[in-house]
């Protein structure tokens, strides 16, 4: 009777699975289903949810069939959920999740180059070229070697143009025009005479200071007010939690996987203060750093 219905609903999970127009390819129709995941699925992998949706989608739209192995699941904030992750760790009751395509591997410049191409070894160029098409203005490059001193990056031939960020360094304009060359003409990382005269060797204390991790950010003392509860659901305020909304009544001591520390952005490195040994330089890699703590969701 009513008791059995209540017991079943407390174990299962209702979710909305979407394939929206922004994620569809080749004119494939968007589709949204409300489905109930059985209790046995909540401890299983997310890839099973992907397979369930693809099976229903392919039955409805056979001309635009989705390959489950080529799909991922993301939450409404576009955070990709691990396909081998446990459903209950990343999805909560009534969440909207989105089936999206895995990024297509882009062909490398070498794969796109014509047969017989060789790579230019002039610094700052690096393109693939055919010797039959080489000429005196084919290459834009640097005549000097790269210099990395402390956090500063520049080319020894262009010492007045410095950068701190790696992308800014790669975007520095070249200084020489000539023919592409398939043999290296500059010895990398060999200090020039000018550099030896102007840059004093670093002391052991300075080296240790550079290698030491940055000090943790000063704690911000603020009133910790609980967030709003809407229809019995709330957003988890633990850092690093991937669950959008959770049912407050279903919260338990192992419901949330999160970081106890805050995010740290130092130079181009990104990491969590509680997991300082796991540093990333790419934002997507930083978002995938495994959490370190298990506990209840924070209202």
From TrEMBL:
The protein, known as: CHORD domain-containing protein
Gene3D superfamilies to which the protein is assigned, alphabetical: 4.10.1130.20
Domain CHORD: from-to ranges: 120-180, 236-297
Keyword Ligase: no
Keyword Metal-binding in annotation: yes
Keywords: Metal-binding, Repeat, Zinc
Domain of life: Eukaryota
Signal peptide positions (record): none
Record Pfam families: CHORD
GO MF term set: metal ion binding
InterPro entries the UniProt entry points to: CHORD_dom (IPR007051), CHRD1 (IPR039790)
Coiled coil: none
């Amino acid at each position: 009777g009513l008791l059995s219905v209540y017991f079943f609903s407390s174990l299962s999970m209702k979710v909305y699975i979407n394939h929206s127009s922004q994620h569809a390819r080749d004119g494939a129709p968007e589709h949204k289903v409300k489905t109930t995941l059985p209790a046995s699925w909540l401890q299983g992998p997310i890839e099973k949810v992907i397979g369930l949706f693809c099976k229903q989608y392919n039955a409805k739209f056979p001309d635009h069939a989705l390959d489950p192995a080529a799909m991922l699941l993301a939450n409404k904030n576009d955070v990709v959920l691990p396909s081998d992750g446990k459903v209950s760790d990343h999805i909560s009751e009534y969440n909207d999740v989105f089936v999206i395509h895995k990024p297509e591997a882009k062909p490398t410049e070498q794969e796109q180059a014509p047969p017989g191409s060789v790579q230019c070894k002039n610094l700052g160029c690096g393109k693939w070229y055919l010797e039959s098409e080489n000429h005196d203005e084919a290459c834009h490059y640097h005549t000097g070697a790269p210099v990395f001193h402390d956090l500063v990056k520049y080319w020894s031939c262009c010492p007045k143009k410095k950068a701190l960020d790696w992308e800014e360094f790669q975007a520095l304009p070249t200084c020489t025009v000539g023919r592409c060359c398939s043999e290296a003409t500059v010895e990398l990382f060999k200090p020039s005479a000018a550099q030896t005269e102007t840059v004093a060797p670093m002391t052991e204390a300075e080296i240790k200071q550079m290698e030491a991790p940055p000090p943790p950010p000063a704690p911000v003392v603020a009133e910790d007010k609980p967030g709003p509860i809407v229809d019995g659901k709330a957003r988890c305020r633990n850092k690093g939690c991937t669950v959008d909304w959770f049912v407050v009544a279903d919260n338990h001591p192992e419901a949330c996987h999160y970081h106890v520390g805050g995010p740290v952005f130092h130079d181009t490195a990104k990491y969590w203060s509680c997991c300082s040994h796991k540093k990333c330089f790419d934002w997507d890699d930083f978002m995938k750093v495994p959490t370190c703590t298990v506990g209840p969701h924070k209202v």
